[in-house]
Design brief:
alpha+beta; 3 helices; three-stranded antiparallel β-sheet
C-alpha cells in the first residue's frame, strides 16, 4: 500500500485572490473612515455656527445692531473680519459668555489677548464674517463662511451659516 502525499502549498492564484479581497476591504474601510471624519467636522462646524449666531443675537439685543465689518477689499481678509467681530462680541457680557463655550482648539488668541482672537473651522482655516446692511430693509443677519475641506474661499465646498 502506498500512501499518497498531498501537497499543502498555497498556489500563486490563491494568494492573489486573498490579496485582492484584502485590498477591497481596506479601500472600503479607508473610504468609510474619511466620510465619518468629514461628517464629524461638518457637525463641529454646525456647532460653531450655532454658538456664533447665538453670540450675535445676544450682541444685537444689547447694542441694537450687529458688529461692523471693514470695507471688503484685497487688504481686509477673513482674518480681519473675524477678529473685529470677536472683539465686538466680547464687549457684551452675555455674548462673551456664549463665545467662551467654543472649543478652545478652534479659537486662537493674538498675543494672549482673548479680545483679539480668530475663530477657525475644524479644517484649520479662519472663518469669514460677512455683514452687509440691507438698505432700507433693516438689518440682515450676518453670515459666517468656512472655506471647507479644501481650505480655499470662493470654491464650491465653502460652507455658509445661512445655508445651515
Amino acid at each position: 500500500m502506498t500512501v499518497g502525499h498531498h501537497n499543502q502549498a498555497v498556489t500563486l492564484i490563491e494568494m492573489l485572490v486573498v490579496l485582492g479581497i484584502i485590498a477591497v476591504l481596506a479601500s472600503l474601510v479607508v473610504t468609510l473612515t474619511l466620510r465619518v471624519d468629514s461628517q464629524s467636522k461638518e457637525r463641529a462646524l454646525d456647532s460653531v455656527f450655532g454658538l456664533l449666531n447665538t453670540s450675535l443675537r445676544e450682541y444685537y439685543d444689547v447694542r441694537g445692531k450687529f458688529p461692523e465689518q471693514p470695507v471688503r477689499d484685497a487688504r481686509n481678509l477673513a482674518l480681519d473680519h473675524i477678529e473685529l467681530a470677536v472683539k465686538e462680541l466680547r464687549s457684551v457680557p452675555d455674548s462673551r459668555a456664549v463665545l467662551e463655550q467654543l472649543d478652545a482648539s478652534l479659537v486662537k488668541s493674538q498675543a494672549g489677548d482673548p479680545d483679539i482672537a480668530e475663530i477657525r473651522d475644524p479644517w484649520g482655516t479662519v472663518l469669514d464674517y460677512v455683514y452687509e446692511h440691507a438698505d432700507g430693509k433693516g438689518d440682515t443677519f450676518p453670515e459666517l463662511i468656512s472655506a471647507g475641506p479644501d481650505k480655499t474661499f470662493g470654491t464650491g465646498d465653502d460652507i455658509s451659516s445661512k445655508a445651515r
